[in-house]
Amino acid sequence: MARVALVTGGTRGIGAAISLALQQAGRLVVASYAGNTAAAEAFHKQSGIEIVKFNAGNYEESLAAVGDIAARHGAIEILVNNAGITRDATLGKMTREMWDEVIDTNLGSCFNLCKATFDGMKAKKFGRIVNIGSINGQAGQAGQVNYSAAKAGMQGFTKALAREGARHGVTVNLLAPGYVDTDMVRAVPADVLEKIIATIPRGRLGKAEDIARGVVFLTADDADFITGSTLSINGGQHMY
Ligand code: CAA
C-alpha cells in the first residue's frame, strides 16, 4: 500500500511541486492549504491530489485534520512541514503581530504537525519528516528577524526530534531552500530582488522542482541513515 504523505501548504509554490513529486514517487499525497481556496481547488483538479483546509499554525485544527486523514487513509508516514509566510519589515517597523504570525505559522506548525503524527510513525517503525527551512534561517536576512528566527528554530527542532526518532525508524531532516521563483519571492521589491539574484553563483532563482527533488530524496524508503541533516538547495548562494 502506498505510504501516506502530508504536505502543508502543499497546493501552491514549492509545496505544490513537492506534492506532485511525492505523487510521482508513488506516495498517497494529501496537500493542506490555509486560505487560497481557488488555487487549492485548481491544483486538485489538475493533479487529482486530495486537498484539506486547515491552519497549520493552529494546534487544535492540526490535530483534528491529522485525525481525519488517518481515519480515511491510515497513519501519516511522511510529513513535509512546508507551510510558511513572510511578514517582512526592519525591526523598527515590525509589529508584535508580524512576529507572532510568522513564528506561529512557520515554527509553531512544525510542532503542531509533528506532535500529531510522531507517535503514529513510531508505532509503524517508519517515518519521514522534512522541515522546509530557508537560507535566511542560516545566513540571516535584513527585514526578516521573524522569518529568520522561525527558520533557524526549525533547524534546532529538526536536530532535537531526529535524536528522538532515530531508534524508532523515524528520520527528521531540514531542507533549506535559497531564493526560489514563487509568489513569496516575487513579493520582494524588484530592485532588492535583482541585487539578491546577483549574489547567486548559479545565476538564477531556484525552481520549485529543484526543491521537490530534495524532498523525494530525503523521504525515500531507503533514506534510513539520513537524519538530523540539513540539505541546502540554493544555487551556491550560501555554503553552510
Ligand atoms: N542590509 C542591511 N540593511 C538593510 C538592507 C540590507 N539588505 N535592506 C534594507 N536595509 C535597511 C536600510 O539601509 C534602511 O536602514 P536605515 O533606515 O538605517 O537607512 C532600512 O533597512 C529601511 O530600508 P528600506 O528603505 O528598504 O525600507 P523598507 O521598510 O521599504 O523595506 C525591507 C525594508 C522590508 C527589508 C525590504 O528591503 C525588503 O523587502 N527586503 C527583502 C527582504 C527579503 O529578502 N525577504 C525574503 C522574502 S522571500 C523568502 O523569505 C523565501 C526564502 O526563504 C528565501
Please summarize the sheet with the most strands: 7 strands, parallel
Helix content: 40-55%
What is the CATH first-level class name?
Alpha Beta
Give the strand order, joined by hyphens, for the main sheet.
3-2-1-4-5-6-7
Number of helices: 9
Radius of gyration (CA) equals 17 Å
CATH fold-level label: Rossmann fold
Name the helix and strand elements from N-terminus to C-terminus, one letter apiece: EHEHEHEHEHHEHHHE
Broad shape: globular
So, CATH architecture?
Answer: 3-Layer(aba) Sandwich
Bin the strand percentage: 15-25%
Structural class: alpha/beta
Named once each, the bound ligands are: acetoacetyl-coenzyme A
Q: What is the total domain count?
A: 1
Instruction: Report the end-to-end length measured between terminal Cα atoms.
Output: 38 Å
Corresponding CATH superfamily: NAD(P)-binding Rossmann-like Domain
Give the rounded overall mean pLDDT: 97
Low-confidence stretches: none
List keywords for this structure.
binds acetoacetyl-coenzyme A, Rossmann fold, 7 strands, globular, 240 residues, alpha/beta
Summary of the model, kept short:
This protein is α/β, with parallel strands linked by helices and 240 residues long. Helices cover 49% and strands 15% of the residues.
